[in-house]
Write a structure and sequence with these properties.
By secondary structure, this protein is an alpha+beta fold. The chain has one domain (24-168): START domain (Alpha-D-Glucose-1,6-Bisphosphate, Chain A, domain 4, 2-Layer Sandwich), CATH 3.30.530.20. The chain is 33% helix and 34% strand. The protein is built from three helices and seven strands, in the order H-E-H-E-E-E-E-E-E-H. A hairpin with a 2-residue loop joins strand 6 (109-120) and strand 7. The protein starts with a helix and ends in a 9-residue tail after the last helix.
């Protein structure tokens, strides 16, 4: 019994002390060259309803409601999937240059995401970033080993989808404000 208690104390100490060595924030930064002009790329990103056409996060949503502005600052998506709920809102929009999103999850956890667009001779270079504070200790472990790699993969897939869609479609998807 004594060995078991010592083992349990060591495991818990490793868990809590180990968490102190992990990043306290989940930060993701993916980029891709989108073979399309900035105004077309921006149009897909600046209207929450347009995310349906390219975002990998949309595939899990079972219920979506849009509110606020159609495009630009205030464009908002309220969503639910089988396990979670939340919202995504454009908190700032700088035409053809960048968009800042505020994501809220379940019980109020928040993240800030940015799409930064840069001219490139072959199209538009898009940087997609995410930054959020994680809770100690579980959040540190979960973000480092599960959320970060999954979010990076989702961002890469989303940028790939955006590139394919923007290249194939010569029509700007929605009227911009």
């Amino acid at each position: 019994m004594r060995i078991f208690v010592m083992f349990l104390v060591l495991v818990l100490a490793f868990f809590y002390v180990g968490a102190l060595l992990l990043p306290k924030r989940l930060q993701v930064d993916e980029q891709k060259l989108i073979h399309s002009p900035k105004d077309r790329v921006f149009a897909y990103l600046n209207c929450m309803k347009n995310w349906e056409t390219w975002s990998p996060f949309q595939s899990n949503i079972t219920e979506a409601k849009y509110s606020g502005a159609d495009c630009g600052k205030g464009s908002r998506l309220l969503w639910k999937d089988k396990k979670n709920s939340g919202s995504q809102e454009i908190s700032a929009s700088f035409p053809t240059d960048s968009i800042i999103y505020r994501w809220t999850f379940n019980e109020g956890d928040q993240a800030i995401s940015k799409m930064i667009l840069q001219d490139d001779p072959k199209g538009t270079l898009v940087h997609w970033t995410l930054d959020t504070k994680m809770n100690y200790p579980w959040g540190y472990w979960i973000s480092y080993f599960l959320l970060k790699p999954n979010t990076e993969a989702s961002f890469r897939l989303g940028l790939y989808n955006l590139d394919s869609l923007a290249k194939a479609n010569s029509i700007i998807p929605a009227k911009q404000q």
